[in-house]
Each structure stands twice: as C-alpha cells, then as structure tokens.
Amino acid sequence: MAEIRPRGRGAAVLRRTVTDTILAAAVAELAETGYAGMSMGAVARRAGTGKAALYRRWSSKEEMVVDLIDVVASRQVPVGGAGDLNGDVRAYVRAVADTLSDPAVMCIVLDLTAEAARNPELAEAFDTAIRQPRRAACERLLRSAMERGQLPADLDLDLALDLLVGLTQWRVLNTGRTVDDSCVEATSKLIIQALPLCVGVGVGDERGVPG
Q1: 174: which DSSP letter?
Q2: What is the pLDDT of residues 49-83, one digit of tens each?
Q3: Side-chain half-sphere CA neighbours of 104 within 13 A
Q4: Per-domain boundaries in the chain
Q5: What's the topology of domain 76-200?
Q6: Topology annotation, domain 16-72
Q7: What's the CA angle centered on 104, arms 82 and 167, to 5 degrees?
Q8: pLDDT of 128-185, one tens digit each?
Q9: Can you say how many angstroms the Cα of residue 67 is from the centroid of all Cα atoms in its chain?
Q10: What are phi and psi of 138, to 5 degrees?
Q11: CB 79 within 8 A of CB 140
C-alpha cells in the first residue's frame, strides 16, 4: 500500500505501521457494519488507538474511506498475458472470482457500490481507483485479441467491455452462486462466444431495433 499523507496539512508522512493498522481496522469495521454504521470512534477502538490518531490522518469518515478504496483497489485484477483470448478471458474471470472470494472485500464492494449512488466523492473515488483501471486493462486485453485476429477489427469496444466486465461482476457479486470451477468455465465460455458478436450494433443503432 502506498504511503498516505494527511490531506491539506503539509505534514510529513505519518507512521506507516500505525496507518496500516488503522486501515486494516477500517476494512474490518466497514465489512462488519457498512458505511452507514461505521464511525471513527469504532475504527479507533478496533485499531487500539485514540480518535486523535485518525483525525491526524483524515478529517472525516468519508475521507478515510476514500483512501480505503485505494487499499481495496490494490487488489486489482491482473488481465492479459496468456497470449490467447480464451486463456485471457478465463484468467480474468478466475481472478475476479478469487479477489471477491474474500468475504470482507465482497461486503465492502457491495456496500460502497450502493453508497456511491448517494455520495459523489465516493463515486468518484470508486471510478478512479477501480472502474477506470479495470476497464483500461480489459481494453488492452481485447485490443491484443483484435491484433491477433481473434476478434473482429470493427469490434465495438464499449459494448465488449460491458460484456466482459459487467457479466463477470454480475455472476460473482449478484447471483448468490458459489463461484466454483464450473461457474468460472460457464461464464468464460459465454463471454468468449458472445464477444465476436459485439460489432456494429451500439446503443441506439437502428440495426439493433427489431423491425
């Protein structure tokens, strides 16, 4: 995890071990109580420190959670590297499943996704730290497959990214299914079969409207 400097205070980096301990406590507290029930006092008690130690680093719970999102984002799912579309997609689906198999991470992602709909700062932090990097990495995966001739040259990248990222996350986060090997394989197979169809029919394209 990167060193965290107090925002707007111009101070030296605070002790790394204390900051790490506080953020670990914040992760546990957030997973257990959710953002609405979380408090600076509860995090301080869990970390075995005083509230002053928290307020030297963050001015509010919201500011602390924005930095905590960076901690969750540090588990970013690696993509690409197999040199083959089938292998890359299967590796991506498996990596997402493995990352979100941590119950604490699963609870935090679901809770903050809901909270972000009401909180613009959290929404921006989520987008910057997690959504944008993941989509950029998946876009590189798809472009590599296009260069190898495994996907059409006129692939609608936005639609293909929605399919790859969206379907994977839906299957892992929202269906309540156990993400075992058969689930990973079925999800990967569906994505691999559908990706070549993501051409020429974007949202609002009249060719996508039944006659």
Answers
A1: T
A2: 999 999 999 999 999 998 888 777 766 677 777 78
A3: 13
A4: 16-72, 76-200
A5: Tetracycline Repressor; domain 2 (1.10.357)
A6: Arc Repressor Mutant, subunit A (1.10.10)
A7: 45
A8: 888 888 899 899 999 999 999 999 999 999 999 999 998 988 887 765 556 788 888 9
A9: 14
A10: -70, -35
A11: yes
Residue 1, token pair as written in the block: 């995890």
Q: What is the dihedral of CA 73, 92, 99, 170, to 10 degrees?
A: 90
pLDDT, residue 208, reads: 42
Using DSSP's 3-state secondary structure scheme, residue 155 falls into strand
Tell the residue number behind the tokens 């790394």, with chain if given: 16
> End-to-end CA distance of the chain, in Å?
54
Q: Quote the tokens at residue 107.
A: 């609870």
- In this structure, what are the phi and psi dihedrals at residue 54, rounded to the nearest 5 degrees? -70, -45
Please check whether residue 130 is in contact with residue 73, taking contact to mean a CB–CB distance below 8 angstroms: yes
